[in-house]
Design brief:
350 residues; mainly beta; 18-stranded antiparallel β-barrel; 1 helix; YD repeat-containing protein
Length: 350
């Protein structure tokens, strides 16, 4: 989970980094909640907007973080669900083990910066995600609210950052523009400002529902995207719009279409911005049971995450945009809803 000093859409990406599973697919005009064309619910849990309960499956119960790979788990994230199997709460607790945590540099994992923090999810009468509150141990909190149109597409998301005393410190709102079922633009506005503070524009090839590129005016970066034949991202190639800086992410899958390696490198400082994530699986599950962090891609594991599951009903949650990996903690495991920019907060494990 990210700290309160970062943009809230990064917070949701951090949630995805520990709570998602499943696979994407190519598709057409199906609404969010359906990642298989034309079947009304790609993960057999019903459309999150239709109020139907989930089905019995393995769902994420706990994630444990060994942030220095010394065999002691300093961080623990616990997940809670409502009676319909929807994610309603994540609580992260950090206990210092006396050793220095790894310096993750180009991304972040839950750490002592997050201390004892909580994410709480609430839903409207239609079953769609309505708000998320992130609360820090010192009482500071961020509220994110979501406004959906009648077709099931997200119109806006609004973030409000508050002090422990409840004083509003910062606010921002994202406006989403769609072309049919495809997300084409996200504009971020600050209060009382008529022009957007930043814009992410998505580009497509003909009628293909999967974006082939995005451009972000805040970071001044273009991201070119390639896809596997089974609807998951294959590689991201980033280049500065006004500079020669580059970075890339390559994703490697096994025969069961499960991500097994994520390799990142950057021209900014290859000796620092160069790392690999490894994923290990238990049986035929499509959510990893272990994630390993190799900071220099030299075979040394600096951090380890372990995922524990429980058997109970579980329902997908449609979340915010998939920002072409613009957030700090992208999760390629998240099932992408083709052509929409949406992902599922998917704690359900197949």
């Amino acid at each position: 989970m990210t700290s309160l000093s970062r943009w809230l859409w990064v917070v949701l990406a951090a949630t995805l980094a520990v709570g998602c599973g499943g696979s994407g697919s190519s598709g057409g005009d199906d609404p969010p909640g359906d990642d298989t064309p034309g079947n009304g619910g790609g993960d057999d849990g019903g459309d999150p907007g239709d109020g139907e309960p989930g089905i019995a499956s393995e769902r994420i119960a706990t994630v444990r973080y060994d942030l220095d790979n010394n065999g002691v788990f300093e961080g623990v994230r616990q997940f809670s669900y409502d009676t319909e199997g929807r994610l309603v709460r994540e609580q992260y607790t950090y206990t210092d083990d006396g050793e220095q945590d790894a310096d993750f540099v180009s991304f972040s994992l839950s750490s002592d910066d997050d201390a004892n923090s909580v994410l709480e999810y609430s839903y409207g009468t239609d079953g769609r995600l309505e708000s998320i509150r992130q609360t820090q141990d010192d009482g500071r909190y961020i509220d994110t609210t979501y406004d959906w149109n009648d077709d099931g597409w997200l119109n806006t998301s609004t973030q409000m950052i508050y002090s422990a005393a409840g004083a509003l410190q910062f606010a921002t709102q994202q406006h989403l523009e769609h072309d049919g079922s495809r997300l084409v633009k996200v504009e971020e506005y600050l209060p009382n400002e008529p022009d957007p503070e930043s814009t992410i524009t998505f580009f497509y090839d003909g009628s293909d529902p999967l974006p082939i590129a995005s451009e972000d005016t805040r970071s001044k970066v273009r991201t070119d995207i390639t896809w596997t034949g089974f609807g998951k991202p294959d590689a991201f190639a980033r280049s500065g719009l006004n500079s020669d800086l580059t970075s890339s992410t390559d994703l490697i899958y096994d025969a069961q279409e499960r991500l097994v390696e994520r390799r990142f490198t950057s021209s900014i400082n290859p000796s620092v911005n160069f790392y690999t994530w490894f994923f290990e699986y238990s049986g035929d599950q499509d959510r990893p049971s272990v994630q390993l962090i190799d900071m220099q891609s030299d075979g040394t594991i600096e951090a380890r995450l372990e995922f524990e599951t429980e058997t109970a009903i579980c329902q997908q949650v449609v979340a915010f945009l998939w920002g072409a990996e613009s957030a700090e903690e992208p999760d390629e495991l998240a099932p992408y809803v083709p052509g929409t920019g949406y992902v599922h907060i998917s704690q359900c494990v197949e």
